[in-house]
Amino acid sequence: MREFTIFTDNLILIKTMKIKVIILIAVLLGIACSNNPKSSDKIQTGTAIQAPEYQKMITARVFIKPGLEDEFISAAKTMIENSNKEEGCLEYMLYQDPYEKTNFIFVEKYKSQAAVDAHFATDYFKEFGTKIADMTSRPTEIKIIDIASEK
Fold first, then answer.
1. What's the CA angle centered on 79, arms 138 and 70, to 5 degrees?
2. What is the pLDDT of residues 23-48, one digit of tens each?
3. Whether residue 59 sits in one domain with residue 111
4. Which pLDDT belongs to residue 28?
5. Predicted confidence (pLDDT) at residue 54 exceeds the cutoff of 80
6. Prediction pTM value
7. Gap between the Cα atoms of 143 and 151, Å rounded
8. What is the biggest distance separating any 2 CA atoms in the chain, rounded to whole angstroms?
9. How far apart are CA 103 and CA 107, in angstroms?
10. Using an 8 Å Cβ cutoff, are 60 and 141 in contact?
11. Between these two residues, 151 and 102, which has the higher pLDDT value?
């Protein structure tokens, strides 16, 4: 009988906690909605608010089949030279993992998203992808990161 009492006490406690959580969510939603003016209450200034333009960093991990490391580095040199000449490119480097010689990472830094888009649209970027496709042992892992402003 004692086990049943403990079970029902726990069940009541769980139901009470669920109700409290639901009430808390409702209160928070009410506060959030009351702090946001309705569209009809907004002042029309004629100027749009723009999101800040962040510099971008790209990391691209490339996994090369064993024995093709030198061929990959040779192909990458042209890519690096051309990319570093791009107006919006701040830095474009290639690193090789000293412990797993078939693993490489490009670390790239751009002035803006527009500069990244321009880079991806270049002929040599597209050609590089085609050139190394048979050299890779698995898909490239690409991450694009916003660089926090120093302001």
1. 60
2. 555 545 555 555 555 544 554 555 66
3. yes
4. 52
5. yes
6. 0.64
7. 24
8. 80
9. 13
10. yes
11. 102
To the nearest 10°, the Cα dihedral for 65, 69, 70, 73?
110
Tokens of 95: 């690193």
Pair (28, 60) in one structural domain? no
Locus of tokens 């042992």: 137
Q: CA separation (Å) from 149 to 49, 56, 110, 119?
A: 18, 11, 13, 22
How many angstroms separate the CA atoms of 53 and 89, rounded?
Answer: 15
Tokens linked to 61: 């991990």
Domain identity same for 86 and 26: no
Cβ 139 vs Cβ 61: under 8 Å: no
68 and 135: one domain? yes
CA gap 92, 132 in Å, rounded: 18
Query: 80-84 long-range contacts, Cβ below 8 Å, gap at least 24?
Result: 82/122, 82/124, 83/108, 83/119, 83/124, 83/125
For residue 6, give its domain range. Answer: 2-35
What are the tens digits of pLDDT across the range 99-146? Answer: 999 999 999 999 999 999 999 999 999 999 999 999 999 999 999 999
Tokens 């000293």 belong to: 98
Other CB atoms within 10 A of residue 119 CB: 20
Give the distance, in angstroms, between the CA of residue 85 and the centroid of all CA atoms in the same chain: 25
Is position 46 within any domain? no
